[in-house]
Amino acid sequence: MKKQENFCVEKGEAPQEFDDDGQLRRTGTWMSASAHIITAVIGTGVLSLTWCLAQLGWIFGTFLLVVFAVISWYTCILLTNCYRSPHPVTGTTRNYNYMQAVKTNLGGRQYIWCAIAQYETLIGVSIGYTITSSISMGAIKRSNCFHKYGHDKGCHTLNSSYLSIFACIQLVLSQLPNFHKLSFLSVIATIMSFVYSTIGMGLSIAKIAGGSHPKTSIGIPPKEDMSSKEKMWNIFCAIGDVAFAYGFTSILFEIQDTLKSSPPENKVMKTATTIGISASATFYLLCGLLGYVAFGNNAPGNYLSEFGFYEPFWLVDIANLCIVIHLLGAYQVVVQPFFAFVESWSRRMWPESRFVNKEYAIGYFRFNLFRLIWRSTYVILATVIAMMFPFFNAFLALIGSTTFWPLTVYFPIEMYIVQAKIRRYSFRWILLRMLSLVCLLVSSLAAAGSIRGLVVSVQTSKLFLSVS
């Protein structure tokens, strides 16, 4: 049977004011889509990569950084073709989000599983961003304290106040009505991610040039102060952190849905995906490898916020401030699809409710009571969970390990097989299923390591008393 490589018909021309689906004409380009992708990908993940290499060594660590990037890029390319699906009446129909694409191509049961995996990712990432932002805020205060009183001082501070500050800002930003209003946040966040990544690389180079030559390892690093079992768990956790670093497939369709109809959305999205993942992978490799040279096998979990660098203190402060600004925008990029899902479901359930549907205007600002209360409640609950489980590396690893396989590998491959009508047990079918199986095994090991890390962290910490 002849395989069809371009599955979805992409329409080129759109009316002046409305697109072919009756919605307001979309105005996104490859530049805005690339900015959304970089904002979603380069975030908390870059901060832990030096620690990951310290657990994995040169060969295995570099190999994983490249392989996860290639897998993510390949499966995202497959996904871009599924934004439009054949329709018996209109010719094609748009899949506005990941879940709709799964339901259209794979059916209802897969749809439910996808919903669980996708919203677990979005919720988990928003909590992870809250944790990381509070740590970076605390690091700014500690940096100035170290500069004033010396590096031998503890300068410790509770993170609760910083978590509350981040939450208050998100209470305001969360009232942006939809994903299409986030372009300015994504552009700012993208700039910030480049700034703090560049500062991290610069500080690493300065540390290396200053004569820092800590021990590194070609293979898995030996850990004399750690049992073999403990070292194995750390390796699994590091794999989960690397998997987390490249995840953005859960919001790919929301990003693609911002693009203009001409040129075809799938072609533009492929360009944006290639640019976004290439830029992210380049920064990850540079930050991770340079950081590993600078810190060696004893690298900190977060090399900008756990004081791998002390001086110049003002540059460390700028880097951490950029992290906070970046995550303020990235939080909205990842959580808006979840907001949209809940609000769309509520409108279908209660179409006559004024509380759910009525929009009020105060000047140029429009608000809805349900949106105001629901989104504010979500931000508060996410902040409370971040206060309860403020464990950077283990938390990121858990999110990455439990969502990488279903969202980045399994569903894209299954939808590709269905739409391309790949014959069962053909060579390509076998290769794709083998890729999926290998990724499942890797994700399972990483999940085990991250869960174990969380359990150990919970046992040795006090509830709501996170200290930087």
UniProtKB/TrEMBL annotation:
Which subcellular locations apply to this protein? Membrane
Which domain of life, per UniProt? Eukaryota
> Principal place where this protein is found?
membrane
Q: Which Pfam families match?
A: Aa_trans
Q: Where are the transmembrane segments?
A: 33-51, 57-79, 182-206, 232-253, 274-295, 315-342, 372-392, 398-418, 430-455
Positions of the Amino acid transporter transmembrane domain: 26-454
Provide a GO biological process annotation. Answer: amino acid transport
Q: Give GO cellular component annotations, separated by semicolons.
A: membrane
User: What InterPro entries does this protein map onto?
Assistant: AA_transpt_TM
Q: Keywords on this record? A: Amino-acid transport, Membrane, Transmembrane, Transmembrane helix, Transport
Q: Which PANTHER family match?
A: OS05G0424000 PROTEIN-RELATED
Q: What is this protein called?
A: Amino acid transporter transmembrane domain-containing protein
